[in-house]
């Protein structure tokens, strides 16, 4: 449920009452509070079974892995969404080759359990790691890219072909 309204119209009171009702009925709830004021009040209402996740706390960083092992039918959608996000983040270095390389890297890593963004550069640079990943690829177009197209690109362009990706990843994910 998403509740909006002007300041002082009772949004927090409504949500606190709903939380208390859920707790009384043995139900759970999730509160996303971008300001933190309501979360502080909710902690008092929730009691000892509360899990409090403060994403703004620098002493307790949380990670998010955008490369979950996913069913094949969702992989192109996940790859496209991640590409769109990276394109916005790296607009200064973005180009057609970068998008092409990243798309096939992401699609390959989506087929491998426990992959993360940190695996992108090893996929490009480490032959043994790449061979391990390629063995797990089932999607024919993705497998063909890594077995035929990527080796041709590397022999033609050398390490310069992935330099924009390397620089962008190193800047954002040290």
- What helical percentage do the residues reach? 55-70%
Q: What kind of assembly state do the chains in view correspond to?
A: single chain
What is the overall pLDDT average? 85
- What's the Cα radius of gyration? 22 Å
The share of residues in extended strands comes to under 5%
The total number of structural domains is 2
Structural class: mainly alpha
Shape: elongated
Instruction: Please describe the biggest sheet, giving its number of strands, its sense, and whether it closes into a barrel.
Output: none
Poorly predicted ranges (pLDDT <50, ≥5 residues)? none
Report how far apart the termini are. 37 Å
Structure commentary:
With 174 residues, the chain is an all-alpha fold. Helix content is 56%, strand content 0%. It has 2 domains: 1-62, no CATH class; 72-172, no CATH class. The chain contains 8 helices and no strands. The longest helix is centred in the last third of the chain and has 18 residues, at 140-157.
Summarize the structure.
With 174 residues, the chain is an all-alpha fold. The protein has helices at 11-24, 37-46, 75-89, 96-110, 120-125, 127-136, 140-157, 163-172. The two termini are 37 Å apart.
